[in-house]
């Protein structure tokens, strides 16, 4: 017989994954700290969350709990048209703060949602030179400090990009490393929660995109080889030639490559 | 449902690793964590399709990379099977696996592979590729480690989706960069032109040459590219 462990995977996977952890692990020690417990609880909640909004709601609550200076926490999502949406917040004023940034076209949540792996911090919103209109407006609403951390880094549509935002009513807060690290960890949780809950919806689309990218790279390579052999030229030259032909004929590079690879014995190229 | 504590612990290992300076995509981080946590000697993530096209998304090192390339060369192997059947493939004693993967087994054993654990990466109804864990020692993984590996396969699926969506980091996800197996495709195009045969036929001849010579397919392809290997050697 085969030395195999194959079985009904769906059933076994659940069983395997549910079996208790016996071996001690260095990373497991933080479970005993209050912060560790918060994260443990958060992850358990995220795994049971049915919707993106529900998952983000848990992240927002956990952020509120582990950042002592937080007065308002929100998650901002940026849609393909660049508009900020505020699906979850600990206070309705979170949505108002996003609306202000939409109106002025600048602000921490907007910028963190646009940039990969970014933090945007200010400990003095009233006098913040980076946000000359949003800063004073936020100060008028009673906020002095802000920390926005990007969610999914460098996302492309249809995936939403976003930011986890923490506002404090006190000046000079939310700028130290401890808060930053916690925010990054929480934002990572939110990003992965987004990735997982969106995965099923987006997977088919992305799978098709990935598959197309892999396939078209294959035929582009093959077309390069065909041109190299026909013309006695190098790989870079062949790629340039391919690109020029694609422009001249107004045909997509991958399509041209595909035609060349599929019908190269019949096609005579100019100059052959 | 998946054990939350286990998920959380592995998640934390992955995110902690992802903050390192050498970050080049989430898939790579999952491979590193798989090696360290599951206790295997190599881990790799490949995008696979029902056809020949494959892409190496990440490997923990050159040994694992070589074994993925071997599966590409051979067109069979544990990852290929895990992908095709949508089930994990565990072989705990490779030298007793008989004629299961004729193109893969002998060379893999020669490279020191003794046990392999391949997981299909499934997102909903869609299969993206596999997480392949390679070990130099024969034997089953303890249930606890196997459970970790299963969770890491889930994380690997998310990792691929995130890597594919982000513009930086993972080179395989960037459409304008040549793929890992580009040289094989270029060589197939050259050979097809020289012998006036189809690209598919050319690919099969390259593969046959790799099989009979014991040299990796990428190596054969590079010999063709460098014109070190005469193309008329591939005539029937």
Automatic annotation (TrEMBL), chain A:
<dbReference type="InterPro" id="IPR011006">
    <property type="entry name" value="CheY-like_superfamily"/>
</dbReference>
<feature type="domain" description="ANTAR">
    <location>
        <begin position="200"/>
        <end position="261"/>
    </location>
</feature>
<dbReference type="Pfam" id="PF03861">
    <property type="entry name" value="ANTAR"/>
</dbReference>
<dbReference type="InterPro" id="IPR036388">
    <property type="entry name" value="WH-like_DNA-bd_sf"/>
</dbReference>
<dbReference type="GO" id="GO:0003723">
    <property type="term" value="F:RNA binding"/>
</dbReference>
<dbReference type="InterPro" id="IPR005561">
    <property type="entry name" value="ANTAR"/>
</dbReference>
<dbReference type="InterPro" id="IPR012074">
    <property type="entry name" value="GAF_ANTAR"/>
</dbReference>
<protein>
    <submittedName>
        <fullName>ANTAR domain-containing protein</fullName>
    </submittedName>
</protein>
UniProtKB/TrEMBL annotation, chain B:
<dbReference type="Pfam" id="PF01590">
    <property type="entry name" value="GAF"/>
</dbReference>
<dbReference type="InterPro" id="IPR029016">
    <property type="entry name" value="GAF-like_dom_sf"/>
</dbReference>
<feature type="domain" description="ANTAR">
    <location>
        <begin position="173"/>
        <end position="225"/>
    </location>
</feature>
<dbReference type="InterPro" id="IPR003018">
    <property type="entry name" value="GAF"/>
</dbReference>
<dbReference type="GO" id="GO:0003723">
    <property type="term" value="F:RNA binding"/>
</dbReference>
<dbReference type="InterPro" id="IPR005561">
    <property type="entry name" value="ANTAR"/>
</dbReference>
<protein>
    <submittedName>
        <fullName>ANTAR domain-containing protein</fullName>
    </submittedName>
</protein>
């Amino acid at each position: 017989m085969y030395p195999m462990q194959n079985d009904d995977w769906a059933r076994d996977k659940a069983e395997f994954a549910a079996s208790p952890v016996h071996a001690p692990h260095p990373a497991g020690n933080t479970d005993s700290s209050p912060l560790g417990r918060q994260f443990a609880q958060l992850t358990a909640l995220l795994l049971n969350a049915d919707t993106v909004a529900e998952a983000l709601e848990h992240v927002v609550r956990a952020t509120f709990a582990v950042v002592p200076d937080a007065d308002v926490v929100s998650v901002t999502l940026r849609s393909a048209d660049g508009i900020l949406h505020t699906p979850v917040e600990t206070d309705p004023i979170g949505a108002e703060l996003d609306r202000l940034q939409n109106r002025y076209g600048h602000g921490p949540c907007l910028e963190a949602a646009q940039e990969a792996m970014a933090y945007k911090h200010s400990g003095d919103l009233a006098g913040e030179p980076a946000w000359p209109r949003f800063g004073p407006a936020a100060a008028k609403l009673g906020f002095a400090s802000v920390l926005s951390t990007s969610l999914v880094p460098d996302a492309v549509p249809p995936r939403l990009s976003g930011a986890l935002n923490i506002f404090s009513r006190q000046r000079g807060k939310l700028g130290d490393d401890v808060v930053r690290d916690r925010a990054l960890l929480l934002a990572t949780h939110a990003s992965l929660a987004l990735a997982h809950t969106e995965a099923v919806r987006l997977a088919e689309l992305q799978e098709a995109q990935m598959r197309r990218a892999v396939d078209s790279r294959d035929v582009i390579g093959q077309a390069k080889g065909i041109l190299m052999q026909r013309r006695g030229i190098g790989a870079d030259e062949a790629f340039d030639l391919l690109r020029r032909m694609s422009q001249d004929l107004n045909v997509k590079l991958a399509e041209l490559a595909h035609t060349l690879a599929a019908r190269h014995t019949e096609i005579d190229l100019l100059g052959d | 449902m998946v054990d939350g504590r286990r998920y959380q612990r592995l998640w934390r290992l992955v995110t902690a690793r992802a903050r390192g300076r050498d970050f080049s995509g989430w898939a790579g981080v999952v491979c590193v964590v798989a090696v360290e946590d599951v206790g295997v000697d190599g881990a790799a993530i490949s995008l696979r399709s029902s056809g020949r096209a494959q892409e190496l998304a990440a490997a923990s090192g050159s040994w694992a990379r070589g074994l993925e390339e071997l599966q590409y060369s051979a067109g069979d192997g544990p990852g290929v099977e895990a992908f095709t059947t949508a089930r994990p493939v565990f072989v705990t004693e490779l030298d007793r696996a008989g004629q299961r993967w004729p193109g893969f087994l002998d060379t893999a054993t020669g490279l020191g592979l003794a046990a392999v654990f391949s997981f299909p990466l499934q997102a909903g109804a869609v299969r993206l590729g596999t997480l392949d864990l390679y070990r130099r020692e024969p034997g089953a993984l303890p249930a606890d480690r196997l459970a970790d590996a299963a969770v890491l396969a889930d994380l690997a699926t998310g990792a691929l989706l995130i890597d594919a969506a982000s513009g930086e980091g993972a080179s395989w996800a960037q459409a304008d960069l040549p793929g890992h197996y580009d040289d094989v495709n270029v060589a197939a195009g050259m050979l097809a032109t020289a012998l006036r045969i189809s690209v598919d036929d050319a690919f099969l001849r390259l593969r046959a040459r790799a099989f009979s010579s014991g040299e990796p397919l990428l190596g054969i392809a590079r010999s063709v590219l460098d014109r070190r290997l005469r193309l008329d050697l591939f005539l029937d």
